Amino acid sequence: MSEIFLLDTSVLIASIIEDEPARPQALALLADVGELHGADVLGVELANGLMKAARRKRISAGAASEALIWWGDAPWQLHPTQPFLDEALHLALKHDAHVYDLLHLLAAKACGGQLITLDARLVTKASTMRLGKYARLLK
Predict the structure, then answer these.
(1) Backbone torsions φ then ψ of 109, nearest 5 degrees
(2) Are 84 and 107 in contact (CB under 8 A)?
(3) How large is the greatest C-alpha to C-alpha distance in the chain, in angstroms?
């Protein structure tokens, strides 16, 4: 069985926005990862991130739409997060974290995978929650 890597929104945004410093690493990961895995909230977060980027003039509205079409057409294996809402809420309150970040992390744990992110704060928080083996910073 091959390793499962769930991608978070930060990696996808970096692969789309041309001036993102981590774009080369994000594009290389997408080219090499094999199967595309993510939490089932990934599309909503991606749309929100693209909206923010368009408002900040980092991407055109057309390019944002094209990115969402790509996302929708790609063969994503999406992992459910609904069962982890309560746990994510409690962890977020205890560790000053974001619920949506913890949903990605808990989805990775549930499928025995690893969350790949550009969010160093999340990786650090995961370690303090004893979930560090389920999160990895994209380098």
Answers:
(1) -60, -45
(2) yes
(3) 42
Domain of 9, in residue numbers: 5-41+76-137
Instruction: Tell me the HSE value of 72 on the side-chain side, using a 13 A CA sphere.
Output: 8
DSSP H or E run through 112: none
- Is 60 part of any domain? no
> Which residue ranges of the chain lie beneath pLDDT 70?
1-2
pLDDT at 1 (0 to 100): 45
Assessment of whether the complete model's pTM goes beyond 0.90: yes
* Domain tally, the chain: 1
What CATH number is attached to the domain comprising 31?
A: 3.40.50.1010
* DSSP codes joined into one string, 40-56: TTHHHHHHHHHHHHHHT
